[in-house]
Every structure is written in C-alpha cells, then in structure tokens.
Q: What sequence folds into this?
C-alpha cells in the first residue's frame, strides 16, 4: 500500500470510538422499532443492512435499518405499516423513489427505515429492495477482513472523481458494486489496474456465480440473483471517467483523486474568455428547483432536456453539447453550431416520376420562395422557415413539450442566450459546462 492510500485511510477509516458510537445507536434504535411495530400489531424482523452492517462504512455513516415483513403481508399494508413505524420512531420524512421509506436522524446519525418482504429466494422479490438483506449477508460471508479498508479506498476514490452512487443524480457505482469489485479483484490497486483495460460493454462476474450479458455499459452479475446486473445504473460517462481516472492515478497517485478541490464558479470575464464566440450559440432554459428527491427529479430533468434537443433537431438546429445543472434554479443548457438559421430552407418532395409528384407540384406552384425544382432524382422547393432562432422557438414551444411529469406543471420558464448568459445567475451552469478539467486536475 502506497503513502497516498495510507494517508487517505487515516481520513476515511472510522476510529474504534466512532464504531462503538454507531453500533450503540443501532442497539438503541432496534428496540424502538420493534416496540412501534408491536403497537401497530405488525410482525417485522429488524435487520441492519448496508455498509455499517458489512463493516465497509466510512466516517459519519448513515444507518440503514430494514423492517422485514412476512411474505403473506399485502404490499400496501407492508408499505403503510412500514411508513407509520418509521414516522413514530424517527418523526422523519417519507421518501419515494422505487420504494417508500422514512428518513430521519437518531443519536446524531442519518437513518433510513425501510420496509420490505422477508423473502426466501432473492430471484423472487416482491418489492424493489427485497434483495438488499441478501447482498449484506453475501458480502459479510465472502469478504476478508483486510479487504474492508480496500473497499473504503475504492468508495472514497469514486466519491472524489464523481462516480460514487447509483442514484439518478450520479448514475455511478453503488457501494455494493464497489464491494463486489474488491471481492473479485482483491485490492483497490488491482481494481484500478483491471479497470484501466476496460472498454464499454465489459462483463464481470464472481467465480461460481455466472450469469448472462446485459446491454448496459458495464455488467457485474449479481451473485445473489444471476438475472440482475449490479452495474445497471453506471452510465457510459461514469464508466469512462472511472477508466480514465484509474489510468491517471496509477501513473501518478495523488490525494486529489480522493479529495479534489471544490470547483468555484468562474467570474464573468473568465466565462466570456473561455466561451468566446461559442457563447452566442448557447441557450439556457431555467426554472425554479422543485421540492422532489433526486431519484425522482433528475430523470425528469433528463427527459425534459431530451425533449428540448429533439425540438431543436426537428427544426434543423445542430446540437453540439448539453448539460443539466441544479442549484436553487435548474438550468438546461444547449450549445448549437449556430443559434440562427437562414430564412430559407429546401423542402424535400417526392421522387421524380412518383404518383404524388403532381400533387406536390400543384401545392407549391407559386407558393414557395422558389418554384419546384428537380435535384438528385427528387422534387424540392425553397420555403421560408417558421423559426430561424433557437431561443425564440424554445420560448414559444417550451410549455407544450413532453417534459417531466412535474416539470411540465411549472408556470414560468426563462429562456436566455448569448450575452444574457453572462448574468451571475448562470455562472454555475456555464462553469460546469466550460470547465473541462477532471476533479483531480483542479
């Protein structure tokens, strides 16, 4: 283990006192959950899952406590009782992504109380989280004690390069995936050496736990359910970043890979200089951030951005790049090869000699900016574009696009472009888009 890894471990490995504190919190929490369940006449089995249960947690961990209901419990009853138990114990807030749970604080720790079914076969799950207890038990049974620190190094590395977390905001590597990578390859360094040679579409599995290939960018067959890809959430961008970061770190280890400097918003002059002439061809759709959890909000934002770019492409605008940026406001940025198109465009008609050429010629005779003409075996006519500027098109059509379920209910969208984007409100999204440095290069 190199000096950089030793230094990082000093910062991420919980002390004995910190471990005792979190375990005492769990010991105090469990009976409260059991009592709350009994008061509601609910049959549950509490189970500590996640990194604390597996001994792979970093400092200041969250506590994940599952409430296992009998398989015979109706789904809605399991959810209702689980949420009520969580509220009575934590007084926290309900959260919904694929599955409802309650999040709150207890003895200084963030706690998730999650209802699920006590299934016997992980391949026959009844809810989205029923496999999680099996994941916990598998890691505990197959990970060597000296590999816990290797997982901590890998998790902190993933956090530093911006690839940690399977949630919709990050689309990266889950904690469970990091643990499986260490079980598969043994050490943090070996994982990075293996990753340095990966390409999109690589498939991984543990010995004696084979499975099929999946269509995602990265496949790691779930050893507790061979029909599931643990790496399904990893986006192509996250995979590429991890591969590149692995190569860069092995070539020159640095603490910055684990703890990069925070990116600060650029000032107006730096943004203007970095953007140059490109700024004139950028446009941003912005609106207030909605009070939704990230796993619900980010898919809606990506859907909204896809709808925006689709509209622009249908109207002949060439999209060069896009990004989504979220603070108090959301900014959907689109860079175009040109924000303005010529007034005229060639409208393609039917092949010469086809049955409907007569109809085309009759429709456009004296109706376009030119008379119908032949080119390359087809009929064409020059017509006037309805929209020559992308920002004007977006202002007119944004509210009618197929946006995210909650985004479409927003009453006010702002569409601005060019020098308008030098306003301070856009410093975050412009810095995010124009600063091409990796986190460890800042």
A:
């Amino acid at each position: 283990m190199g000096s950089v890894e030793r230094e990082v471990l000093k910062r991420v490995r919980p002390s004995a006192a910190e471990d005792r504190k979190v375990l005492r919190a769990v010991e105090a929490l469990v009976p409260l959950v059991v009592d709350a369940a009994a008061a509601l006449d609910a049959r549950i089995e509490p189970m500590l899952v996640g990194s604390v249960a597996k001994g792979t947690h970093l400092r200041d961990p969250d506590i994940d406590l599952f409430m296992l209901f009998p398989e015979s419990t109706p789904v809605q009853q399991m959810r209702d009782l689980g949420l009520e138990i969580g509220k009575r114990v934590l007084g926290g807030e309900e959260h919904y992504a694929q599955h409802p749970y309650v999040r709150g604080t207890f003895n200084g720790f963030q706690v998730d109380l999650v209802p699920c079914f006590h299934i016997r076969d992980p391949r026959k799950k009844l809810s989205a989280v029923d496999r999680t207890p099996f994941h916990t038990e598998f890691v505990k049974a197959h990970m060597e004690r000296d590999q816990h620190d290797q997982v901590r190094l890998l998790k902190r590395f993933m956090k530093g390069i911006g690839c940690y977390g399977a949630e919709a905001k990050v689309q990266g590597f889950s904690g469970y995936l990091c643990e499986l990578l260490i079980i598969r390859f043994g050490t943090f360094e070996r994982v990075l050496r293996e990753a340095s040679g990966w390409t999109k579409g690589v498939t991984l599995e543990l010995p004696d736990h084979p499975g099929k290939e999946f269509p995602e960018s990265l496949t790691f067959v779930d050893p507790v359910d061979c029909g599931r890809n643990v790496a399904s959430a990893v986006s192509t961008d996250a995979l590429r970043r991890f591969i590149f970061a692995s190569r860069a770190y092995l070539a020159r280890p640095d603490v910055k890979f684990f703890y990069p400097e925070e990116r600060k918003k650029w000032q107006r002059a730096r943004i203007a200089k970095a953007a140059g002439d490109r700024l004139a061809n950028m446009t941003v759709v912005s609106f207030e951030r909605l009070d939704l959890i990230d796993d619900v909000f980010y898919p809606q934002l990506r859907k909204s951005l896809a709808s925006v770019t689709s509209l622009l492409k249908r109207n002949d605008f060439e999209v060069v790049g896009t990004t989504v940026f979220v603070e108090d406001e959301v900014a959907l940025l689109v860079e175009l090869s040109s924000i303005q198109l010529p007034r005229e465009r060639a409208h393609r008609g039917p092949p010469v000699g086809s049955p409907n050429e007569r109809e085309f010629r009759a429709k456009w005779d004296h109706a376009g900016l030119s008379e119908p003409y032949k080119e390359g075996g087809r009929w064409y006519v020059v017509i006037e574009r309805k929209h020559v500027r992308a920002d004007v098109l977006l202002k007119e059509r944004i509210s009618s696009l197929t946006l995210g379920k909650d985004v479409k209910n927003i009453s006010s969208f702002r569409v601005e472009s060019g020098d308008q984007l030098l306003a301070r409100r856009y410093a975050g999204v412009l810095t995010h888009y124009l600063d091409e440095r990796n986190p460890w290069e800042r």
About this structure: Residues 344-384 form one domain. The mean pLDDT is 94. The first helix runs from residue 3 to 12. The first strand starts at residue 45 and ends at 49.
